[in-house]
User: Fold this.
Amino acid sequence: MTQKYFDIHSHIQFPQFSKDKKEVLGRMEDEGVGVLVVGVDAKSSELAIREVVEKDYLFATVGLHPNDVFKESFDISYYRELAKNKKVVAIGECGLDFFRTKPEKEKIQKQKEVLEAHIALAVELNKPLMIHCRDPLRRGGGEASAHDDLIDILKSKKKEHGDMLLGNIHFFTGTKEIAKKYFELDFTISFTGVLTFTHDYDEVVKYAPLDMIMSETDCPFAAPVPHRGERNEPVYVIEVVKKIAEIRGEDFGIVRGALVENARRVFAL
Ligand SMILES: [Zn+2]
Assistant:
């Protein structure tokens, strides 16, 4: 199947899709939507690989989500074995989450340790990272910033590993200034259906170079307008691509094509 769109971050291996998986995949095939199926822990990473083996438009990522590092200890040799599969195109999702996890010193430390293990694995296997990064709801007053901490880690690792360290910041909810810092580190950012119901990210969508952004759904979560409140699914990425083109004031076909190219380049598809 030729891909006309890429949803670079989905969780179609989650139980929310168990009843109608066939129909969901059918709609993706009809619209030409390629997908990365993202693992968040040992079990869902293994399921992601199982999900993608037989379809040429599906790819997997394996990793341990920052909110899950307290219930599963990151077994690097287990993930290494999974990641050796040819259909595994990235390591993650991994990262820092100070939104759902209260940013206490010990918890931050744990998330950082596990993130650094993912970085080491990605560099070792020459695969990009799929990074999750979320700031606490209320900032200011000296509160910790997940993005600031992540940028510090990536900067120091970049000095060590150079071009071997690459990846994408998924579900980007930062500012233009933060995006700029990721671009300087050769990291792309990706946007979700959230763009269809808030103007909070319009400025960063307009500012970003077209070759540094990608489209995603993060389904089953975060469905775009006109599907808000429903279960999200990969074909709805079309709404995200339309919105990106509209916000940037660029031709839909050009933006669509560029976002597919970017996914191919970053994940070597
Ligand atoms: Zn996710």
Observations:
- The longest strand covers residues 88-97.
- Residues 5-266 form a domain with the TIM Barrel fold (CATH 3.20.20.140).
